[in-house]
Fold each of these.
Amino acid sequence: MDAARKSLEDDKAENIVVLDVTGRADYTDRLIIATGQVERQLQAMASHLDEALGKAGLHLRRDAVQASGDWVLIDAGDLVIHLFRPAARELYRLERMWGPESPVQTEQADAARG
């Protein structure tokens, strides 16, 4: 995770947030959310993250990066990284969905969902 954060800082990512979602999400333990101003910056950040994570010993699957012009998602297993342009980040508000105030999953809640 430190390699990812340093890579984002080096690429001038804005408003980098790291969320521990253990017990809140069943697909990962940590989320990193960051903002880039233009699509080209998002693509560069994603490429540099791939390199940085590889050097740290985490090699992404070929399909681990999904991208649009406003949002790049990188699935590194226990770490999922979301890179947004400002308007998309405001629209999806992942910090509110997965932040410390979000509900913790419990066996009772899982059972109720069936």
Note: The two ends are 34 Å apart (CA to CA).
Amino acid sequence: MVVGGIVLLLAIGAIGAAGADQGPTSGGVVPSSSPTARSAVRPTATPTAEPSPTPEPTFGPIGQTIEATVVRVTDGDTIVGAYGGQEYKVRYIGMDSPETVDPNSAVQWMGPQATAANAALVEGKTVFLEKDVSEVDQFDRLLRYVWLTDGTAWTLVNLELVRQGVAFAKSYPPDVRYDALYSAVESDAKVFALGLWGPTPAPPTPAPTPVPVIVPFVEPDPEPAGNCHPSYDSCVPDGPDLDCPDVRAMGLAPVDVIGPDEYRLDGDHDGLGCE
């Protein structure tokens, strides 16, 4: 009996060991309590995606542009540009410069400086013309914003002239796209007393008006001095015999007779002839 019991215990132990070494069941399901199951369902950590940086705004034309070549600069706010085989007068939008070419106006202060500044920016260069709302003004000039670019940055020429103080900000509705920018740079020009906002030069001192010289009229002597008859204190000419009508005609009567009365002018011998 004892031997039989030992054999039975050994058989039960062998069956338990075999069960412990057995793998997954035929259904392929791993018991959740096993280490393999816990490893299989562990979540994988996913790194949080960083948002893409917002690109910096680029200052440049907003609307469609036309590439043109500046043929000549008219003044501080007007150019002649060429594209498509034609030339066009172009008036800058949003600003105004002092007059230099208006036949009805004198050349205004800072006008030549505005023209020179405009020429320094665009003369002979390639520019880009941006339209706002209007096509042309009352003089049939194109109304445009005029842009320059070096390939990476843009310069609005209209705005730059206001920034330099050689032009005024001036709104021309309905073309008001950049009016706020014009106002801002004009305020800066005023703060720094640039150009138009600097000291106004004193007007030139007018030349003194010459005072006319009035020369009194002097009755000319009937005869040059030294050709007078010595017998009369008025300059009765010493020459051919004269009588009183002759003396009166010369405006010399009456005459004092102070010597021999050769002309017989003193008929009553009172010392006064042709009275």
Note: Residues 2-21 form the longest helix (20 residues).
Amino acid sequence: MTRKRRIGLALILLASGISSLWGSLLGHNSPNSGGDFKGVYYDARCLLQHRDLYKEGEPLRVYKEENGELPESSHGLRQVLTLNVYLPTTFIFIAPFAMLPWGPAHLLWLLVTAVSFTLAAFLIWDIGAKYAPVIACGLICFLLANSELLYGTGNAAGMAVSLCVVAVWCFLKERFVLAGVLCLAVSLAIKPHDAGLVWLYFLLAGGVFRKRALQSLALTAVLGLAAILWVTQVAPNWMQELHADLQGASAPGGLSNPAIDSVTGRSPAMVIDLQSALSVFRDDPRIYNPVSYLVCGALLLVWLVPSFRLRFSQRRAWFALAAVVPLTMLVTYHRPYDAKLLLLTVPACAMLWAEGGRSRWVALLVNGLGIVLAGDIPLVIFVNLYQSLHLSTVELSGKIMTVLLMRPVPLILLAMAIFYLWVYVRRGGQDAGNGLDGKAA
């Protein structure tokens, strides 16, 4: 291992260690301590006790039986324990933790999350360091150091994102491929809206990568079938109940509602999809949902064409992923801890930086802003600044300032998606025009 790689590894371990320790301490001192993991933990406890985990309020009743009443300040945690918005496949992986008492289960979950997330960061550093070690290390360390919310809430995104990143490394490096198949399958099972478009790229890439994608899907289907059979025995009406829970969470004021007045709308745990920015101007799902789907659908359609037509190459794969990862965050419900998937954009930025030219500065700007603005500490600063200004959202100027201060993440994610999509399409077109590329019929 070279000196630069040793220094990079040390910095990554330091950034990850600070973030995990600080986030865990902040979460421990909060009335909503480990709220997201607590939700799935008590959902799984319901399942293990043969109680309907999708029945509204049932996990909350299990919590009260084991711990007593919730504090009045735990409004967010109360909603998490009342409405179960996870698919049955999630609970196959949560059930082993739910067999343990809360304290050891929570500690073990944080440990597994920290190890997997740090491993994912190091694997991306392994790629980026070949092109621009300082740039790659800086971006990765800032992302790691601003992941306190991930550990404070214990959200399953930490596991889903980490496993997705590990799978990408395994596939593109052609090492530990079976482990990569397993990692992608588990990531899809836990949070398909995080890993779904990444999986789609490998399906479209063809050849051995399509085989890996189909293997991952088949394994996810097997896990899903087992989970559905298990859950159906306990909760025969789980589909209707899950639908009702999702509607309740997305209703005005609900935990998953993208509007500024939702439970977490003015907090660092805000929703970051495109709907959350559009809702500031018109808080009507009949308006912001179709507009979001139209914008993201158009960008996805442009991305699909070269992904399907062009012959696979390692460099092009990283540009394709750099374009689709921010688009993943925009198209549907996500929060800042899901945006840790931006790790997959770092190699593309490092490659452009190594090539020189004006594009490298744009890449560094959009990547840097994307990782900074989606970071936990900058989001806390924005929230405090917004609250001190007491802006009104009645006038257009107030709405614009609200979007800039409270919804900066969707804006920069959109800029990232457009920039890397331009790079991806432009380079594919140049290669095809020179007769250097194009998939075989």
Note: Residues 207-234 form the longest helix (28 residues).
Amino acid sequence: MATDDGGKRTIASVDKALQILEALRSMGGATLAELAGEIDLSKGALHTHLATLRDHGFVEHRGDSYALGPAFLTFGEYVRNSVPLYRAAKGEVDELAVESGECVHLITEENGLESILYESFGDRAVGREFFMKNREETDRHLHYSAAGKSILSEFDEDDVDAVIDQHGLPQHTPYSITDLGEFKAELETVRERGYAANDEEDLLGIRAVGSPILGPSGDVLGALSLSAPTSRLQDERFTEDLPRVVKEYVNIIEVNLQTGDISM
């Protein structure tokens, strides 16, 4: 048994196992020697941890390297399928992707950062590799995406300040909003019109519109957004047409949540 800096009781071996898994994720796989340079364990103890994790499917041995194992696939699917928002929105996300031909994203917030719950790609969708790579990222900020702005627009000011205090407003592209006053004014605009815009703030050449999804009790559960090349999101299509469509789909998702129509 160990105690962390906050005085909480923790299990040292479990903590080390989680450190190993996080290292394998961030490194994209590693040899025993490479892991030993990252984890404060002897090679013998490290090998024992890896063997235990491998026996349970959380690690696999590939030649001289270790990588995350297939058990995470079934665990991840179980967790996602247990989320009411996913079950209420999956069909609508797929339908909007087909109708628009573009990328559609179902986003939630976790610890002040963006988490991708589900995505669907229409027949004209671009940037698939970029968006799929984003699923692996753990530091996706909320302030430069349409979905993230939508979620933050439903937070009270103290909670917005807490997120910004913790994660800041880093510049992601030259168009990202990094000034606090400007960003808070942007959130007020989002609240007034019911949707957020991302004008190349996340990826150059890509615009997006998003709208918050509220649960039956009025709390924000996430957001729905649609991304497309700037050439296809111009004028009224960017400021009126697609925002209206996204909000219509959000309304359907919210009705699904209210009525319990969340079958897969």
Note: The two ends are 42 Å apart (CA to CA).
